[in-house]
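Q: Could you fold this chain for me?
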Amino acid sequence: MFSDGPVVRLLDLAVSVRDSAGRLSLDAELRRYVRLVRGDAVAQWNCSAYAAAGALEAAADGLGEAPAAFREKAVRAAGDADPAEFLRTLAESLRENDRAGAAEFSELPMEGWEFLRTFPLLFGLDAILMDEPGPVGATVRTLLDNEHPFCTALAAGYAGEAQRARVLFPGADGLRPRLSWAARDALLAITATVDDHMRREH
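A: Sure. Below is the predicted structure, expressed as structure tokens.
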């Protein structure tokens, strides 16, 4: 609990807000956290935002026995507040945001950290395309062929992220505000490439 998991993730968000000099809002970051967890069935099943709030309270109760690095992070996140009380307040704020439901992207834009957790493979593909420019479909085909026959997780990941991006951001620009190559046509090329690979090789 003190070295990994939702408590550490939420404290990291609180620290980033503290360090942002007013650019970020803790409430908005908690709403993004809720949206991220609610949008992922595995995350919701494994540790819902409600369960994460309970973990924050448990961390507050055990703060005195926590590793020094965790206590230091809690102090940094809390600012002038008592760290244990800050953790309890953070837990209640998280519950309130969870009860409010997931925010629409039109209401609360996706922040950078949320993007990386939602589209990790597409973000990684961006680095590949920067090093080896070319058609995105051909690049994905090569990646899948190189992993074949142990490619099903990668294929499902690329297809899922591309389709999710098309649904969440249905305009012609797709993810171009974040990834310069990831317009709608490129996302369509990814799903088409995965479909073609599955037909040919499986």
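A (continued): The mean pLDDT is 94.
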